[in-house]
Specification:
The protein has 144 residues and is of the alpha/beta class. It has a single domain, classed as Rossmann fold (3-Layer(aba) Sandwich). The protein contains five helices and three strands; from the N terminus they run E-H-H-E-H-E-H-H. The relative contact order is 0.17. It comes from Pseudolycoriella hygida. InterPro entries: NAD(P)-bd_dom_sf, Sc_DH/Rdtase_CS, SDR_fam.
């Protein structure tokens, strides 16, 4: 595998599941995908970044890390963990003299692409309505 200079942790599942709902297995799965896997992936790449004296680790959290969503307690908690992981990793890199490895946490807000979330979530803030822009107009994938 080629050296990795930029890591974007974007894995996550968004179940509308309150703490009282769902089985222990469902809760474990959400935690496994949304945070445990992120820890394992993230710890794999910084050693090479440190060796090359460059790199960037990006964690995709959620605005729910700061403003938890009623009916999505587990999801909100895992996204708060992701945000805190990136803050702590950045501080760790700085304290170890590896400030050339940058760490960024992104906290996107909800875009109404999933009707089930829009209909069941109890958000404190208004939605950003998705107007149907196709991904080919806002994304470019380089498969070479």
């Amino acid at each position: 595998m080629s050296p990795v200079d930029i890591l974007v942790n974007n894995a996550g599942i968004v179940p509308m599941l309150s703490l009282r709902e769902g089985s222990g297995q469902e809760i474990d799965r959400i935690i496994q995908v949304n945070i445990t896997a992120q820890f394992h992936v993230t710890r794999t790449f910084p050693p090479g970044m440190i060796e090359r004296k460059r790199g960037h680790v990006v964690g995709i959290a959620s605005i729910s890390a700061l403003h938890p969503v009623s009916g999505a307690v587990i999801y909100s908690s895992t996204k708060a963990a992701m945000n805190n992981m990136m803050i702590a990793l950045s501080e760790e890199m700085r304290q170890e003299g590896n400030e050339f490895v940058k760490c960024t946490s992104i906290l996107p807000y909800l875009v109404t692409t999933r009707k089930d979330i829009v209909e069941t979530a109890n958000f404190r803030f208004p939605f950003i309505y998705f107007t149907g822009i196709h991904s080919q107009h806002c994304c470019r994938w380089d498969t070479s």
